[in-house]
Fold:
Amino acid sequence: MSRRTIRLHTFCSVKGGVGKSTLATVCAKLLAARGRVPVLVDCDLTGTSLADGLRLRSPAVTLLDDGSINLEAPPTGEMLTVEQTRALRAQRRDALRRDGQTWRDRPHPPPYFNDPLNYAFLTRRPARVDALLWRHERDDRVLYLPSSSTHDDVIQSVEWFFGQPFDWARSLAWTLDGLAQQVPALSDVVVDLPPGIWGLPHEALVLVSTLLREEPMPDDYPPWHAGPIRWVPNPFLVTSRDPNDILPALEYVARQRARVSTLKPVVNRDTEGLNALRSMARARVGPLLEAAGLHETIERVAEMSGLARLFWDGNVTVDETVDEALREVRKTLRLEEEP
Ligand SMILES: Nc1ncnc2c1ncn2[C@@H]1O[C@H](COP(=O)(O)OP(=O)(O)OP(=O)(O)O)[C@@H](O)[C@H]1O
Ligand SMILES: [Mg+2]
Structure:
C-alpha cells in the first residue's frame, strides 16, 4: 500500500514568549510559499489566539437551528471579511456569557480549534474540520485553525487540565485525522503549542514520540499505524538565550532523547551566531550536553525585525536581506529535508 506522507511540525517551549507562534507561523508561510499545503493549528488554549494578532478571515459555517455551528457540515466555500469575523467573535463572547455551560455542544461562530477538539472528545471521531479553516486577509495560502481567546472559552478549556490524562492528545489526534482525510492536498500540519513542557505540550510530545517510534496508536485513537497516512514529526523546542530558559530546555531535550530523537532545540532571537551559542551552551551544561551529544544539535534563529513583520504579514515575499536570513530559517526548521 502506498502511504501519503504528512509532516507534523510542532513548536513548544519551557518559557512563554520565546517565539513559538512566530516560528510556527513563519514555518507555515515558508511551506505554502513552496507550494505545499499547510494547516497551522493554534493549540494555545490559555488566552492568546492567532486571530487576535493576525488579520484572519473566518469561514462562513453551516448553523444548526439553535444558531450553533454544525460541526458535521461540509465547507460552505464562503469566507467572511475581517470585520465580519471580528463582529462574530464579539457575538460568540456574549453568547458564551449568557449560556456558557453548554459550550461543548453548542459552539457559536466563528469556529475555533476548541470546537473540533470538543467534538472529538465527545464522539471519538473528527468533526468536519475542513469547514472550519480560516485564511489570512492577504491570502498566503496557509490554512489557519486559531484557538479562542474569549474568556469563557479559556475558562472552559481548564477542564482539559482536570480530565483524564491524554483526553486532550486523543482529541487532537482525531482532529488532525479529520484534516488529513478531508483536505486531500494537505501536506503539512504546523502545531503551535501552549508555553511549558507539562500538560498539553507533554501530551503532544508523547503523540510525536509514538509516531517517531512507529508504535501502534492506543485504543480510541485514529489507527494511524495501520492507515493510509504516514505522519512524519518534525519537533522543535524553542528557547531564548536566557540561561533560566536554555538550561531547562536543554535538559528536557537530553532527557527526551530516547523517546523523541529528533526534538531540536532552537535558540530564537540570537544575536551572536552559532559558534558563540554552542560554546556558551557547552560551558553552561557541559557534561550533560556531552553525555547526550547535544551541543551539536542546537541551532539558532537570528533576531530579525523582518521575521516579526512576516509573522503579521500575509505576504511571504520580503526584501532581499530578509530572504537570505529566511533561507537559514528554512534550513533550521528542516523544511528542505525530504520526510
Ligand atoms: N527571531 C525573532 N526576531 C525578532 N523578534 C522576534 C523573533 N521571534 C519572535 N519575535 C517577537 O517576540 C515576541 C514573542 O513572540 P511569540 O508571540 O511568537 O512568542 P510565543 O512563544 O508564541 O509566546 P507565548 O508563549 O505567549 O505563546 C513577538 O513580539 C515576536 O514578534
Ligand atoms: Mg504563542
About this structure: The first strand starts at residue 4 and ends at 13.
